[in-house]
Structure formats: C-alpha cells, structure tokens
Design a protein that fits this description.
Radius of gyration: 25 Å
Number of strands: 13
Shape: globular
Largest sheet: 6 strands, mixed
Strand content: 25-35%
Number of helices: 5
Distance between the termini: 55 Å
Helix content: 10-25%
Mean pLDDT: 82
Number of domains: 1
Low-confidence stretches: 8-14, 16-21
C-alpha cells in the first residue's frame, strides 16, 4: 500500500510490509486492578494520605456521677510518596510519525501499552510479596493440601474482621493446576457466574475469589490479600503514542513515547498472606 503524497511531496512513497500484526506472548494482568484507591489529597503534589484502619470506636459503661473519659480515634493516615516514574522512548527509524505504516503503529502501540501495564502489575505484585506476612511453611504445595493451605490463609485474614468480599486470592499456574484436581475447588468453579468468569475468576475458596497470575515470583505459590489495605496511586499516565523526533540529531525519525508516575502500597502486613516455596539450589 502506498502512503499518500505529502503537502510538499512529488510522488507516493512505496512501502512493503506484512499484512498482520506480529503475535506476542501476553500474561494476564489481574493483580493491580484489585488494588483500591482510597487516598486523600491530590497525587500531583507528590504525596498522598491513606487512612490506616485500626480499631473500632470504644464503648464503655456510662458513669452517671463522674461522666466518662474521652477516647481518641485510632484512625491514622499513612503518607505515601510517589516514587515510581517509568518511561517508554523507542526509536522508529526512517519514518516521520505521519508516515509510519498502520500495522507498525498498531503493533507498537499495543506492545507499548502492554509493556507499561506489565511494569505496573509487577510493581504491585512485588509490593505484596515483599511486605505481606509470609506463611511459615516453605514446602511445595500438593494436590492434597493446596486447597486447605489457601483456606487457612483466608481464615487468618477473616479473623481480623475482613469481609470475604474485600479479599482476593492470586495463585500461580502450578497452584491452579493443583486446585483443579481438588473436587471442592472444581465444584466452586462450576458455580461461577458469567460476570466473575469475565473478570478472570477461576473459583472460590472459603468464599474468596481466586484468580490466576503467571506474573508471581518464581518462589511464590499464592497470595491472599484484603483489597482496602492494598492501595494504588496514579499521579498521571501519558499513554504510549508515536511522536516526531525534533532534536536536531535524528532525521526522518519518530519514537514511541509514554510515561507513568504512580505508587503501590500495602498499608498493613497482616492484611496479606504470601505462600512461598524454598528456592531450589
């Protein structure tokens, strides 16, 4: 297909290229979408305040004669600095932005958007893995104990007073395979509605939704966390786009450019349980 004549051109620019976009492997991004955004303040300031939920309001017996001592709220605010600043700046040589072939535009925009999303996803997972409560057992899960292990992790977070609707379990592909061999889990998967299936839910354990992610670290088998204590802050994101390079050095060139400033924070270690396996030597 020929590119159109430019306003100052004299002939069509003949370009030959493949008809289809190159297919690339893609891992589903399911973790960061579960993070909450309960912060106060404008993230453009570089810092936000996240409410740290402590104990409920205290109730005591009223003293008719002397009255009662005032109690103080346990709610505090955790300041979170925005430290993540990621960029895409990929050279596309020989083409000005207006002349880049359509299939190359589509492929690079799709790839750039996914790469940026994957970076944010991996940062969110690392926040949970690095700051959550690690389960004591480092033995590899089996098809006979995977369901029970996750159920117990869910139980421990439920004991804190967290509702199951505010919780989510993320399993790696190996753990998913083990769960599918457990009739208790397969029965829960068969009862899922169409909406949950569209959201990537593969089943439920102890009332908590289960999703699979191939992005967990090699030694992480699953993560159970309470969403209100996992916070994401997006200051601003410039979606990947192809721009002309006008720097006085490059000639007839453009670049795929994008940028994101953000932060992910687990505000309570007890609201997240991480099951790891001992690394093989």
């Amino acid at each position: 297909m020929a590119n159109p004549i430019a306003t100052n051109g004299t002939h069509y620019r003949q370009e030959r290229y493949a008809d289809k976009i190159v297919k690339l492997y893609r891992k589903l991004l399911v973790v960061r979408t579960e993070f909450m955004r309960d912060y106060e303040g404008d993230p453009v300031s570089g810092s936000i305040q996240v409410p740290v939920r402590g104990t409920d309001v205290a109730v005591s017996t009223y003293d008719v004669l002397n009255g009662n001592t005032l109690t103080q709220s346990a709610t505090t605010y955790l300041p979170i600095l925005l430290t993540k600043n990621k960029i895409i700046n990929e050279l596309i040589d020989k083409y000005e932005a207006a002349s880049v072939p359509d299939n190359l535009i589509a492929q690079r925009l799709e790839s750039g958007s996914y790469s940026m999303g994957l970076t944010l996803e991996l940062n969110a997972i690392a926040e949970l893995e690095d700051n959550g409560t690690v389960e004591s057992s480092t033995s590899a899960l089996t098809n006979t104990d995977a369901y029970t292990s996750i159920k117990n992790s869910v139980r421990d977070i439920k004991k804190l007073g967290v509702d199951v609707t505010d919780m989510v379990t993320i399993v790696d592909p190996d753990t998913e395979a083990l769960l599918l061999e457990d009739v208790k889990f397969s029965n829960s998967a068969g009862a899922l509605g169409a909406e949950l299936l569209r959201e990537g839910v593969i089943g439920k354990i102890n009332g908590v939704r289960v999703k699979m992610s191939a992005n967990l670290s090699a030694t992480t088998e699953y993560i159970v966390f309470a969403r209100p204590w996992a916070q994401s802050v997006d200051e601003w994101i410039a979606e990947p786009f192809i721009e002309d390079i006008k720097d006085g050095k490059h000639v007839k060139a453009s670049a795929l450019q994008g940028r994101a400033i953000y932060e992910d924070k687990l505000t309570s270690a007890t609201a997240c349980r991480v099951k790891t396996v001992a690394a093989s030597i």
